[in-house]
Write a structure and sequence with these properties.
2 copies of one chain form a homodimer. Chain A has helices at residues 2-23, 32-42, 49-60, 65-86, 103-106, 109-128, 136-150, 155-164, 172-197, 202-229, 232-235, 241-244, 250-254, 256-272, 282-293, and strands at 96-97, 100-101. In chain A, a hairpin with a 2-residue loop joins strand 1 (96-97) and strand 2 (100-101). Chain A has a single domain (2-293), classed as Farnesyl Diphosphate Synthase. Chain A is mostly helical and 296 residues long. Chains A and B meet through helix 2, helix 6, helix 7, helix 8 and helix 9 of A and helix 2, helix 6, helix 7, helix 8 and helix 9 of B.
Chain lengths: 296, 296
């Protein structure tokens, strides 16, 4: 399953890369800089975990890849927007992302702000386009669900709590909610897209929500472990910085050993949410192990 | 007509204020700061010109205010997001907006970035919500058209050109395109919303596009004139700053006298685009004069 998963991750990455190349505007005109920066930020980078989840979620319900890859590109635009804004000096002030200078380092802060704004907007443009799906009801559901996941009670709230709890000692409940909002909500949306497009049952949707919830937390705990133990070169971004800037991590609160044990527990739990699906969910199951064993 | 227009502007402002109060999340939880900042930025301020255009546009096609006021709130969320990000130190670095400290002055830069992000997202959440309109086709059209108007080839492109031409001497063509994108595209969307919801003819839509185009430019030229001649207290924001930061304005390029003449010409032209509409368009006609005669 290891090799099969690697191939599927690579396949999702290739497909979303091609879709992004097609969907991102060409960099010309006097506004070229922001268009170039959008491509710089979005192309050729990252694990493309969310696009993988999106494609796999579609396959559970027999939705063709052609539709799902556009949805995956929208999800990735949102993910990249959140990284570009998160890296800004006023936020996490990071110089390195996916092994390259961050957008505000490569260009400037104003361009980075506009790049994030434009990627966020592009996500909604893609989802509402009738080339994504012929049924406006489906397109609207995608837009509505995404907006809820990433708005002031979703991802943005997570970012706000992350900033508000700097140099504080938030309890495990606060950090869990913070991470559920900051990274979990978009992961959950990616996992649910197939169910939305495939008009799946409520039961199937809830199973995917449970999967996404546990997977997201396991992912974040592993991220925190890598931030403490990792190697900057392999991670392609600065490591050991969360502690340095007074961010509460799962590792701080639980200790490395308990955090690792908890991540593994959650990863097993995530897989069991998929019990009602047949072998179509095998790669999603395999991902749960991959998430906790990854080195970057 | 002057009084009638004033009353209609006040009515639109009141209605959108009430809608925003209803649609903006309440400020509670550990993420309260960004929710409070969203309200701080969006409530109780501005001329609410775009909400007025949205409501009037709906009335042209017999669409009820209840629908249009939600659309107007979405349009205003986008407008406010653009102001909050535009005011940031890395962008125009403004301390004063609508007579109050800007969001990054009142709170901090990180909160201002997130506030803009959340308001932008909220606009799409409102438009895709079935409470806005029962037909998903209409909701999707609104989302798609808005995303196009304010994205990398729309409002964001205008912002980028605005920054890229600082301390340069762009020609009148560049400045016209800059302003059409930066402020004109959202004004055009506001004017077209009634046609989208009311499923108007192409002819009617084109007429509104023409109206919006000329009105937007007349509005911007008057803004530039007020920036040179205006009074900070009356404008509720810093004036005389465009020249100070090396921004090319219509007044720089054309001179005050020609800019004023051109604004009046465009305002008359804007009104004539409405010839195919009956007296339902009288307030939109009256607005064209109001725009060029305003003192703030």
């Amino acid at each position: 399953m290891g090799t099969e998963l690697s191939l599927a991750l690579k396949d999702a990455a290739d497909k979303v890369e091609e879709a992004l190349d097609d969907l991102l505007p060409d960099a010309n005109g006097p506004e070229a800089q922001v268009l170039e920066a959008m491509r710089y930020a979005a192309m050729g980078g990252g694990k493309r975990l969310r696009p993988f989840l999106t494609l796999q979620s579609g396959r559970l319900f027999g939705v063709d890849d052609e539709t799902m890859v556009r949805v995956a590109a929208a999800v990735e635009c949102v993910h990249v927007y959140s990284l570009v804004h998160d890296d800004l000096p006023a936020m996490d002030d990071d110089d390195l992302r996916r092994g390259k200078p961050t957008v505000h380092k490569k260009y400037d802060e104003a361009t980075a702000i506009l790049t994030g704004d434009a990627l966020l907007t592009l996500a909604f443009e893609i989802l509402s386009d009738d080339e994504t799906h012929p049924d406006p009801y489906v397109r609207c559901k995608l837009v509505a669900r995404l907006a809820k996941a990433i708005g002031a009670r979703g991802m943005v709230a997570g970012q706000m709590i992350d900033l508000a709890t700097e140099n504080q000692s938030p309890d495990i409940g606060t950090v869990t909610r913070l991470q559920r909002l900051k990274t979990g909500e978009l992961i959950a949306f990616a996992c649910e897209t197939g169910a939305i497009v495939g008009r799946a049952s409520k039961e199937a949707r809830h199973a995917l929500e449970g999967y996404a919830h546990d997977l997201g937390l396991a992912f974040q705990m592993t991220d925190d472990l890598l931030d403490v133990e990792g190697d900057a070169e392999e991670a392609g971004k600065a490591v050991g910085k969360d502690a340095g800037r007074g961010k509460a991590t799962f590792v701080d609160i639980m200790g490395a050993e308990r955090a690792r044990a908890q991540a593994e527990l959650l990863s097993g739990q995530a897989a069991r949410h998929l019990d009602l699906f047949d072998e179509k969910a095998d790669l999603l199951r395999a991902l749960t192990e991959f998430i906790t064993n990854r080195q970057s």
